[in-house]
Amino acid sequence: MKVLYTGINVFLSSTLKNNLLVPKSFKKLPFDKIKDDILGKKYELSIVLVGKNRIKNLNKTYRGKDLATDILSFHLSETDGEIFICPEIAKVKERDFAPKYDNYLLFLVIHGLFHLKGLEHGAKMERYELTYYSRYRHRYL
Questions:
Q1: Per-residue H/E/C for 93-120
Q2: How many CB atoms lie within 10 A of CB 44?
Q3: Going by C-beta distance under 8 Å and a sequence separation of 6 or more, which residues neighbour residue 34?
Q4: Residue 19: what pLDDT?
Q5: Could you give the CA distance from residue 96 to residue 25 in angstroms, rounded to a whole number?
Q6: What share of the chain is helix, strand, coil (3-state, %, to 5)?
Q7: Residue 132 confidence (pLDDT)
Q8: Beta-carbon neighbour count of residue 10 at 10 Å?
Q9: pTM for this prediction
Q10: How much is the pLDDT for 99?
């Protein structure tokens, strides 16, 4: 596993053999600040970049869905969680979402954080996501 970022309460790592699908701008995001804004300073977060096979296995094991997805979030406790992102799937899905790939990766992190906060898909979650996405996209990408 390759460490890409270590913050105060955020750890970003990759199990990918090749990190070409991870833009430099993504690795430079203020993950601690984004996490603190949404989940609070005491929350510990691990973000792991994984390949298609690993995310497909996780999705099948924990959600009963036999397909690869771009993101999975796992709430481990009141103050601890994990987000798994598959850059390969995200690269395909970003064409329908954002003008730039690194923007979509930022959106996925925010999306995962709101799932860890307990929100489910819907209008309320979308409002929150777009607010935070706009805030950080303009500052850091």
A1: HHHHCCCCHHHHHHHHHHHHHHHHCCCC
A2: 16
A3: 109, 110, 113, 132, 136
A4: 75
A5: 20
A6: 50, 20, 30
A7: 93
A8: 21
A9: 0.91
A10: 67
Question: SS3 of 1, please?
Answer: coil
Q: Which amino acid is at 7?
A: G
The whole-angstrom separation of Cα 8 and Cα 6 is: 7
pLDDT, tens only, 7-46: 889 988 988 887 777 888 888 899 999 999 999 999 999 9
Taking CA 26 as the corner, what is the angle to CA 24 and CA 32, rounded to the nearest 5 degrees?
125
pLDDT at 141: 65
Distance CA(130)–CA(117), nearest Å, equals 16
- Regions in the chain scoring below 50 on pLDDT: none
Give the full edge-to-edge strand order of the sheet including 80-85.
Answer: 2-6, 10-14, 44-49, 80-85, 71-77
Give the domains, in start order, of the chain with CATH numbers: 2-140 (3.40.390.30)
DSSP-assigned states of every residue in 23-50: -HHHHTS-HHHHHHHHH-TT-EEEEEE-
- Which contacts of 95-100 are long-range, i.e. CB under 8 A and separated by 24 or more positions? 100/141
* Alpha carbons within 13 A on the beta-carbon side of 25: 13
